[in-house]
Design the sequence.
């Protein structure tokens, strides 16, 4: 009798947890695959940031194969747009005790959520994992925070320079010669921009006008600037180097060389949708653009980012995290190991164009596409991702909001950076988590 009551209690808890998870979602922003568990089966929940179709197809295959190799296991999959949508959903899930077992999310989240105790330290699991020794050291280090491993980097996201060779040729530019400096970039972008009246229909350069911080950071770094002194919690994005870079970008936006967009949303990202001649974008954008537009095969160039005072670019990292709330931690890490296997790492490259993160695949990766993949590795080697501070998301949100104000003429680029830095300094006492 007691066993029967215990079983009924367990089933009720499972159902209630499932209901709570569904309730905290946004029906417009989230799509779930396999939303219900079946009696007697273990359920693993997996969320990933992003809504692009190619990666959805990739995860659908991985999950199906994982379930086939793990009888009795069901993986519930959800996808949510980057930025505020994911932050809101995660906050609600952790507050209600319905956080996912495994999460694919950004480097910017490491310090904040590790400090809150929401990410599970992975050292005990990783120390027994044979694949750990094969990971590139720079990639492995992205998941470290306060001497503990909280995330496993699996999708490097460096920004490389992409350009449409066909549009260059049509505009009288050398299709094999991308812009080499800021001055050439501005000149080429203006020449390549196409307008219908006052409306830009083909962007000369894809500049995100919402959530623009990753694009902006590349130019600040190239100009010798820094984002923040993490040790002193002192913002540095109101420095002369940062202001100069900001003014450069703002001036281009005001000239109408871009189309208003939020590049964190797949349906708005200009280059993969054939609406931009030049872009700082990911290797995946290079692959997906040609996959979705077969007529562009061989007509897209890729190189390392422009160098100004220094060679630099934004290089983010998508990592796999385990929730501290997970009741299936061993199974969760098993799923993570599957994703990080040599075979699956290569599959990810072939299907999505993502750089490999295993030393044993490095030579094959560069040899497969020497021109493109060497540029990608260069970008990863000198790129810089989001700052590892607990308030990283809030800081970049402030920067993006003030940039947007400058783009739409409510303030200058210089004032935008000064206002953003002043706002952060004011809020820091409330944001710093010890």
Sequence:
């Amino acid at each position: 009798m007691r066993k029967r009551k215990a079983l009924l209690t367990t089933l009720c808890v499972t159902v209630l947890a499932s209901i709570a998870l569904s309730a905290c979602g946004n029906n417009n922003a989230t799509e779930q695959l396999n939303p219900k568990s079946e009696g007697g089966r273990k359920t693993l929940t997996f969320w990933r940031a992003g809504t692009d179709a190619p990666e959805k197809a990739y995860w659908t295959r991985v999950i199906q194969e994982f379930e086939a190799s793990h009888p009795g296991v069901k993986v519930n999959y959800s996808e949510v747009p980057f930025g505020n949508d994911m932050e809101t959903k995660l906050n609600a899930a952790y507050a209600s005790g319905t956080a996912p077992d495994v999460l694919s999310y950004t480097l910017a989240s490491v310090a904040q959520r590790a400090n809150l105790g929401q990410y599970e330290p992975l050292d005990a699991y990783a120390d027994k994992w044979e694949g750990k020794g094969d990971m590139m050291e720079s990639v492995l280090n992205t998941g470290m925070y306060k001497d503990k491993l909280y995330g496993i980097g699996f999708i490097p996201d460096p920004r490389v320079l992409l350009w449409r060779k066909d549009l260059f040729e049509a505009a009288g530019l050398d299709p094999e010669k991308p812009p080499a400096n800021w001055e050439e970039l501005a000149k080429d972008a203006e020449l390549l921009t196409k307008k219908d009246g006052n409306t830009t229909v083909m962007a000369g350069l894809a500049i995100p006008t919402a959530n623009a911080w990753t694009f902006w950071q590349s130019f600040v770094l190239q100009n010798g600037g820094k984002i923040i002194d993490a040790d002193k919690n002192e913002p540095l994005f109101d420095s002369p180097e940062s202001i100069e870079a900001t003014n450069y970008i703002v001036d281009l936006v005001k000239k109408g060389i871009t189309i208003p967009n939020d590049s964190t949303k797949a349906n708005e990202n200009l280059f993969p949708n054939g609406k931009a001649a030049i872009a700082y974008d990911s290797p995946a954008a290079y692959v997906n653009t040609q996959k979705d537009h077969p007529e562009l095969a061989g007509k897209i160039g890729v190189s390392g980012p422009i160098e100004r005072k220094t060679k630099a670019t934004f290089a983010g990292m998508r990592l796999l995290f385990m929730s501290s709330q997970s009741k299936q931690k061993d199974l969760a890490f098993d799923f993570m190991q599957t994703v990080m296997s040599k075979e699956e790492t290569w599959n990810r490259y072939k299907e999505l164009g993502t750089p490999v993160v295993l030393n044993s695949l490095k030579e094959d990766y560069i040899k497969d596409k020497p021109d493109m993949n060497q540029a990608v590795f260069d970008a990863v080697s000198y790129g810089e991702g989001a700052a590892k501070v607990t308030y990283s998301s809030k800081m970049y949100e402030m920067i993006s909001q003030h940039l947007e104000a400058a783009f739409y003429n409510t303030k200058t680029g210089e004032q935008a950076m000064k206002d953003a830095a002043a706002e952060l300094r004011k809020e820091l006492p409330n944001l710093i988590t010890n």
Q: What stands out?
A: Confidence is low (pLDDT under 50) at residues 1-38. The two ends are 49 Å apart (CA to CA). The domain at 160-313+391-431 is CATH 3.40.190.10 (D-Maltodextrin-Binding Protein; domain 2).
